[in-house]
Amino acid sequence: MLAIIDYGMGNLGSIQNMLKKVGVRATIASDPAIIDAAAKIILPGVGHFAAGMKNLKERGLIEALRRNVLETKKPTLGICLGAQLLTEFSEEGNVEGLGFIKAKTLRFQLDDATLKVPHMGWNLIAPQKSSPLLEGLSSQSRFYFVHSYFLKAESPSDILTKTHYGFDFASALEHQNIFAAQFHPEKSHKFGMRLMKNFADLRLN
User: Fold this and answer.
1) I need a surface site. Which of 64, 185, 190, 196 has the fewest CB within 10 A?
2) Where are the alpha helices (DSSP H) in 45-203?
3) How far does CA 204 lie from the centroid of its chain?
């Protein structure tokens, strides 16, 4: 069973429906006991970083996530704000994140005045390393983005994909059992379906 974490900020139904389309059973969960029983975890999110951290804390989910992601090392996928929350710090609210990945969340500062923030719409991902999460996907795979902040990894080895918007930024990270996607696979049609199925089928050593 796969648990989609409900902390009051995310496209929970869209993610659950996408997984259902690829034959994967997923439960929307805010109960730590259900999270403990899950084989894999998705941390979604739409909205403000500081509010996301506040909600996780108030709902008693931080310790449950720490236990399952860092100690039990369950495969975990953060999506959009959920990906950012996995980092150590965000300029959005200037607050600390979960710190599961050595990375920071920074606001776009673009020299090209024709490029608007937020970065919104379809864009390509360029794989930077081999990963089971990207099986069947290529540099021609298009995903849907909507974000004003981006992920900056401390180690280049954690960068899974890059996307160009004014400059090349890390659009997905991978560190051990943790995956973070700045784009929205649940809104990305066939490419998103493939990525979600790949995540559901993950078998980590």
Assistant:
1) 190
2) 49-58, 62-65, 81-85, 189-200
3) 18
Cα distance between residue 58 and residue 167, in whole Å: 37
Instruction: Tell me which of 92, 119, 175, 186 is the catalytic residue.
Output: 186
- CA 1 to CA 114: how far, in whole Å? 45
Q: 3-state SS of 5-49?
A: ECCCCCCHHHHHHHHHHCCCCEEEECCHHHHHHCCEEEECCCCCH
- Catalytically annotated residue among 58, 135, 184, 189: 184
For residue 116, the SS3 value is coil
Which of 80, 147, 174, 175 is labelled catalytic?
80
96 Cβ contact list (under 8 Å, min separation 6): 53, 88, 89
Give this prediction's pTM. Answer: 0.96
- pLDDT in 10s for each residue of the chain, 205 residues: 999 999 999 889 999 999 999 999 999 999 999 999 999 999 999 999 999 999 999 999 999 999 999 999 999 999 999 999 999 999 999 999 999 999 999 999 998 989 999 999 999 999 999 999 999 999 899 999 999 999 999 999 999 999 999 999 999 999 999 999 999 999 999 999 999 999 999 987 5
